[in-house]
Amino acid sequence: MVLLELQELDTKRGALHHRLGRLPGVAELADQVTRRKGVENQIRDLRIGVADLSDEQKRADLDVEQVKTRRDRDQGMVDSGAIADPKALERMLGELESLARRISTLEDVELEVMERLEQAQTDLAAREAELATIDEQVAQTRAELELQQKEIGAELDGLDAQRAEVAGSMPEELLNHYETIRAKKGGVGAAILQRKECQGCGLMLNAAELAALAKAPRDEVQHCDECGRILVITSESGL
Fold first, then answer.
1. pTM as predicted
2. Rounded to whole angstroms, how far apart are CA atoms 36 and 8?
3. Residue 148 class from Cβ within 10 Å (0-12 exposed, 13-18 middle, 19+ buried)?
4. Are β-strands 190-194 and 230-233 bridged in parallel, bridged antiparallel, or unpaired?
5. Once rounded to an integer, what is the mean pLDDT over residues 155-179?
6. What stretch of H or E contains 90?
7. Is the dihedral of CA 189, 192, 195, 199 positive or negative?
8. Neighbour count for residue 96 (Cβ, 10 Å)
């Protein structure tokens, strides 16, 4: 029965390890981290775009100011009466009209760049807010996951201590034999024979196999002919 107790402990430990690797928070955290990376990349690109548009707006502002400065200078000359020659005055007036059209065009460009910059800044702020929200979700999920892992870890520590005590009471040769089979059989190295059925593979033993088991010494290690696991014989085995 000690062997069966050891198997029960190993089964519980295996279930906890399985549960530990498949906690809902593990997949949720991985999804959040993936989404965070995507938003982070978007923010990087948007910041580059905002910087480029800021430079473009500065150039557009400078272009407008330069043309306005020239217009104001020429307008000042006209207003002051400094241009006495009628033809020169006519040319100057024509140039002022051309400068006015140029200023209008440049201001349209300036406005268009400004609108694009404002939209990029709005998009950047939205993505940064989204990133902050994801960071809060990541922190919460990680905290909950760590708590669950800690609780399961405490259970595993308790089972490990029990297992060490049980394993220490077994003959080393039997323990090694059990461990070898358990490694090959998906974590189940020993199974109880209950009502003539191996609980390891679920198959019913035939009459000849049952008769052989009934005649065998009780201290002799027996195996299921079908799955090869160690059979634990009890009063409920049906021998």
1. 0.66
2. 42
3. middle
4. parallel
5. 95
6. helix 86-168
7. negative
8. 16
Residue 213 has pLDDT above 90, yes or no: no
Chain centroid to CA 35:
8
Torsion of CA 49, 54, 57, 63, to 10 degrees: -120
Long-range own/partner contacts, residues 162-169 (CB < 8 A, 24 or more apart): 162/9, 163/6, 163/9, 163/10, 163/13, 166/2, 166/5, 166/6, 166/9, 167/6, 169/2
What mean pLDDT value characterizes the chain?
Answer: 93
Residue type, 22: R
Evaluate whether 190 touches 7 at the Cβ level (below 8 Å): yes
Structure tokens at 35: 């989404």
Report whether pLDDT(239) > 90. no
CB contact set of 147 (below 8 Å; sequence gap of 6+): none
Q: Which two tokens stand for residue 79?
A: 């207003």
pLDDT value of position 211: 86
Q: Identify any residues that bridge with 230 across adjacent strands, giving them in sequence order.
A: 190, 223
Distance CA 216, CA 218 (A): 6
Helix (H, G, I), strand (E, B) or coil at 59: helix
User: Rounded to 10 degrees, what is the CA torsion of 219, 225, 230, 233?
Assistant: -50
- Predicted pLDDT of residue 65: 96
Residue 81 confidence (pLDDT): 85
Q: What is the pLDDT of residue 21?
A: 86
184 CB neighbour count, 10 Å cutoff: 12
